[in-house]
Amino acid sequence: MEEKNIKVVIIDDMPSITELFGNYFSLAGFASEVVDFNDPQKALEYVKDFSNNIDVIITDFRMPEVDGLDILRVAPPRSLKIMVSGYLSDEIIDELNGMGAHSFEKPASMNSVISLIEDKFQL
Predict the structure, then answer these.
(1) Interaxial angle between packed helices 15-26 and 110-121, expressed in degrees from 0 to 180 and rounded to the nearest 10
(2) How far is Cα 78 from Cα 92, in angstroms, rounded to an integer?
C-alpha cells in the first residue's frame, strides 16, 4: 500500500495538549507532518494561508481572542475537522455537525481520534 503523508494542524492554548497530540501522532504508525499552535490568532492566519495543504485540523474551543469555531470556519471543506474541548454546548455541536466536523470531550481518547483519521484517509 502506498504511504500517505497526512498534514495535521493542532491548536490549543495549552502547550501540554499540543505536545501530547504531537507525541501521539509521532507514534501513530502513519506518516504525518504535524504543525502545532498555542496562539490561536497565529493558527487562524496559518489556516487561512495554507488551508489547501491541511488534511486534519484538531482544535480546542475555548481559547483567548479566537475560538476553535472561528478556525474551523475558514478551513477547506476537504479537511477533516476535529474539535476537542471540555466545553461543547448544544449550539456548538450543532454548528460542528453543520460543517461536517467531529467533536470529542476532553480528555479525548487518542485512539478514537487516530481511528477517525485512519478511517478518513484509509490508512
Answers:
(1) 50
(2) 20
- On whether residue 95 sits in a domain, the answer given is yes
Number of structural domains found in the chain: 1
This prediction's pTM: 0.91
CATH number at residue 111: 3.40.50.2300
The 10s digit of each residue's pLDDT in 70-120 is: 999 999 888 999 999 988 899 999 999 999 999 998 877 888 998 899 898
Are 36 and 10 in contact, with CB atoms under 8 Å apart?
Answer: yes
Place of cell 475558514: 74
Instruction: Report which DSSP code applies to 78.
Output: T
Q: Encode pLDDT of 23-40 as tens digits.
A: 888 787 776 788 999 999
Which residues contact residue 36 at a Cβ distance below 8 angstroms, ignoring those fewer than 6 apart? 9, 10, 11, 12, 18, 19, 21, 22
